[in-house]
Each structure stands twice: as structure tokens, then as C-alpha cells.
Write a structure and sequence with these properties.
Elements lengths: L4 E2 L2 E10 L2 E8 L4 E7 L8 H15 L9 E7 L2 E7 L4 E2 H7 L4 H20 L2 E2 L8 E3 L5 E3 L6 E2 L20 H4 L7 H16 L9 H10 L5 H4 L5 H10 L11 H10 L32 H12 L5 E5 L6 H11 L8 E5 L9 H9 L9 H9 L4 E6 L8 H10 L3 E7 L8 E5 L12
Parallel strand pairs: 12-15, 12-16, 13-14, 14-15
Antiparallel strand pairs: 1-2, 2-3, 3-4, 4-6, 5-6, 7-9, 8-11, 9-10
Helix pairs in contact: 3-5, 3-9, 5-8, 10-11
């Protein structure tokens, strides 16, 4: 093929070969630019399904226009040979980049954000890559990531050409559902993203095996070695992102690339880029408003409620009493006192503005900054966010939406480290609820002053 002219492309050199195509570097005689031409291998030239898959790749890639995705110029056929004309990307694969030298954590995060942004553009068009791996991610000399090879992409609205029970793609990067030959959605790409991130951080794959079946068993059943055991300078927040992307249970995995991008951008803040951050009282996450006045005359109640909240078996406390007794002010002081007991924060949620019980969970989610996804319910998104967090919610003015109380019971049942402090004029009548009645402060007798 070298030196041959196909259509208006002159073949210069062979760049690589994969199961679904042979790629050549070529010169476009019309536009005077370098391109990459991808042909079907000779042994598949007569395979109607392979040709159809090449057309599918063209349609999938043509729907995408993003700086982190390799551009497709055209699909054509010459002398019975079908081929794609693609953007020629200078540089090397991400795999070669991290094999030659260990990447700095900041570089890994920057690459990860570019990969995620490219996937985001694809997913918005209904395109799932299904074969994401470090070998088909190119890094240009300027450090720009290009996602290559949508040869196994599933375009929403098209027929799914891959046999339902086939396990195509590179096995080591497959999600558990893909390895089983099941139907997949965008979350399979998020798993593969997690594998790539683990690989470029540690220099090794999270799941390994000498044979395909051994590797598939590991993907479906085993837990990878912690990143922190392989590399000491990786921030906890970054390791958590990888761990969440590699959740075998689809409900516990990231539901969208937007969620991953949100977490990646958060750890770019200088305070996050430390391997083992130490937490002081001021470092604890909270949104508690600063008190306008000191709390006076509630010392005994403050001490009693604080002790209750620190008891491991008590997870739901409701401060009850008539309006105007100072329940809100008391709850805020209690929350301030126990900040050091909740590693993942203390959050105050004002429910006074709402009257619809159906809005309680969305109000909590908004306060916590939970990113929702169309692939799961609000309750599932909130539960996934709180599932492993040691956190206190302070829910103020619950009496007008008490019908939402069962949703609190569900949260507590699904999130073992979560505690809730409620202020309400009435009890919630939930199992495990501990009521603390707040009495009005005694009015001083002016005759004794």
C-alpha cells in the first residue's frame, strides 16, 4: 500500500493495525494536508458486518465536533476498499506517555478532564465509545488529548451491529456488564475511564489475568489494589474518583461524565492537592450561618443534645416545641459543637420556604451540591452521594412537610454514617427517632430585678 494513491490520498506509511482496521498516514492531494486512512483488514473485506461497522464508526464520529475527539473527514470506497479519512494526530498514545515516565498528579488530572470533556460531547450526541483505553488516546506535542477509534461505538437510534453476547473491545478495560456481553449505556465508558485513570496513576491495570477468562473473572468479582498502596502522592480525592468510577454496581458508579468533571475540577483547588490532608475544626465542611447573638440560658439543653448526638446508636433527633422557643438557634449551636465528629461535614437545610413534601429531597440535594442524573431517581442520587459519608444534616422547620418523614428513614437506612437533627413543632413518628422537647425560656420576673 505504501506509495499507492487511493482516491485523492497518497499512502505514506503504515501507522498501526487493530482488530477492526489498518491505519495509514496519507497526504490529501486536494487539500494538501496529512490525514489518517483507516481500512478494513484484508481478511474482513468480504465481511458485510465489518463493513457495516465501519460505516457506523463514520456516522458516530461525524456526529461529533470537539477538540478532544479525532475528527472524521469522510467515508469512501476505492477499488472495492472501504476506508475512513480521519484527522492525522501527531504525538503518541497516552499508554506510551506514562510507560516512558511517571506522570505528575497535576498532569493526570489535566488529561482526565480532557478525556471526560471529549466523552461528554460524545454522550450528548448519544454516542458510547465502548472501547476506551490508553492505547486509543493520543497526546499531541502540546499536551492535547484526542480520543481515537469509535469503531465499536453504539450510535443511539441505529441498529446495534455487535452481537448481543459478544465481548468486543480490549478485555482489561471492559466494564462488568460489557464483559458479560450485556447491553451497555454511557456508564460503561465511565468504568473504562476509571481503568485508564488507575493505569496512568499506578503504571498497572486494576484487573489482571494471564487468560481472558481469568481477567473477566477479576473484573466481575475482585477489588483492585488501592492506589494509595502503589503511589503515595495521589490525593485521596483523586483516588475516590477512580474508586467510584470502578464500582461494579451500576447504581453506585458515576451516572454521567458531568459528575466526574465536577469532582475533577473540585480537586484542582490548591487545598485538595495533598496526599493526606489533616482536618482541623475550621477545615470541616459546613454551611452553618454565623450566629448573630450568643446562646444564653440553654447550657443544660445544649450539653444534653450534644451528648445524645455523639452516641453511636442515636441517629435521628427531633427538637420539638412551639414556635418561637429557639429550636433553630439551639440546633445551630449543637451543630457547631459536633463539627469535629463528622468528617464529611455538617449541613444546615432550611425547609421553611417549602410546603410540598415532594420538595424535601431536592432541597437537601441542592444544599449538598448533589448532581442528579436522568439515569436514576433523585432519591438514588442522594443516597449514592451520602452512602459512605459521616455527615450530619440539620433539617429546620419540618412540621409543614412532615409527610416526607419516611424519606428520611430511607436515607438513614441506606447511609449508615449519616445522622439527622430535625427541628419541628411535631414529632416525625419514625422508628429510632429520639425526641427532645425544647421548653420556652422562663421570663425574668421584673419584681426580682
Amino acid at each position: 500500500m505504501i506509495g499507492k494513491t487511493i482516491s485523492h490520498y497518497r499512502i505514506l506509511e503504515k501507522l498501526g493495525e487493530g482488530g477492526m482496521g489498518v491505519v495509514y498516514k496519507a497526504e490529501d492531494a486536494k487539500l494538501q494536508r496529512l490525514t489518517a486512512l483507516k481500512f478494513l483488514p484484508e481478511n474482513l473485506m468480504r465481511d458485510a458486518e465489518a463493513k457495516a461497522r465501519l460505516v457506523q464508526e463514520a456516522r458516530a464520529a461525524a456526529a461529533l465536533n470537539h477538540p478532544n475527539i479525532c475528527t472524521i473527514y469522510e467515508i469512501n470506497e476505492s477499488e472495492g476498499q472501504s476506508f475512513l479519512a480521519l484527522e492525522f494526530v501527531e504525538g503518541e498514545t497516552l499508554r506510551k506517555t506514562f510507560i516512558s515516565k511517571q506522570l505528575l498528579v497535576n498532569s493526570v488530572i489535566e488529561y482526565a478532564i480532557q478525556i471526560a470533556e471529549g466523552l461528554q460531547a460524545a454522550h450528548e450526541k448519544g454516542v458510547i465509545h465502548r472501547d476506551l483505553k490508553s492505547a486509543n488516546l493520543m497526546v499531541t506535542p502540546k499536551g492535547q488529548i484526542k480520543i481515537m477509534d469509535f469503531g465499536l461505538a453504539k450510535l443511539a437510534g441505529s441498529s446495534f451491529l455487535t452481537k448481543e453476547n459478544a465481548t468486543m473491545g480490549t478485555v482489561a478495560y471492559m466494564s462488568p456488564e460489557q464483559a458479560r456481553g450485556k447491553k451497555v449505556d454511557q456508564r460503561t465508558d465511565l468504568w473504562s475511564f476509571g481503568v485508564v485513570l488507575y493505569e496512568i496513576l499506578t503504571g498497572q491495570l486494576p484487573f489482571q489475568g494471564d487468560h481472558e477468562q481469568v481477567l473477566i473473572y477479576a473484573i466481575i468479582n475482585e477489588t483492585p489494589e488501592p492506589i494509595s498502596a502503589l503511589r503515595a502522592d495521589v490525593p485521596n480525592e483523586l483516588e475516590n474518583i477512580v474508586n467510584k468510577a470502578l464500582q461494579k454496581n451500576l447504581t453506585n458508579r458515576y451516572q454521567s461524565v458531568e459528575e466526574i468533571l465536577f469532582d475533577l475540577n473540585k480537586i484542582l483547588e490548591p487545598a485538595s492537592l495533598s496526599p493526606s490532608p489533616t482536618k482541623s475544626l475550621s477545615a470541616h465542611l459546613h454551611n452553618l450561618p454565623a450566629p448573630a447573638t450568643p446562646l444564653i440560658g440553654r447550657e443544660s439543653e445544649l450539653e444534653a443534645i450534644t451528648k445524645l448526638l455523639r452516641r453511636p446508636e442515636i441517629r435521628l433527633i427531633t427538637l420539638t416545641g412551639p414556635g418561637g422557643t429557639g429550636k433553630t438557634r439551639l440546633s445551630l449551636q449543637v451543630a457547631t459543637n459536633v463539627l469535629a465528629n463528622f468528617d464529611d461535614g455538617v449541613f444546615f437545610v432550611s425547609l421553611a420556604p417549602i410546603n410540598d413534601p415532594a420538595l424535601v429531597l431536592s432541597t437537601i440535594a441542592e444544599t449538598l451540591g448533589v448532581i442528579t442524573s436522568p439515569l436514576r431517581s433523585l432519591s438514588e442520587s442522594l443516597t449514592a452521594h451520602l452512602a459512605e459519608k459521616r455527615l450530619l444534616l440539620v433539617l429546620d422547620n419540618f412540621e409543614q412537610i412532615v409527610a416526607a418523614a419516611p424519606s428520611l428513614a430511607e436515607l438513614l437506612g441506606a447511609c449508615p454514617e449519616l445522622k439527622i437533627l430535625v427541628t419541628s413543632r411535631v414529632v416525625l413518628h419514625l422508628t429510632g427517632e429520639h425526641e427532645f422537647a425544647v421548653q420556652p425560656l422562663a421570663t425574668p420576673d421584673p419584681k426580682q430585678s
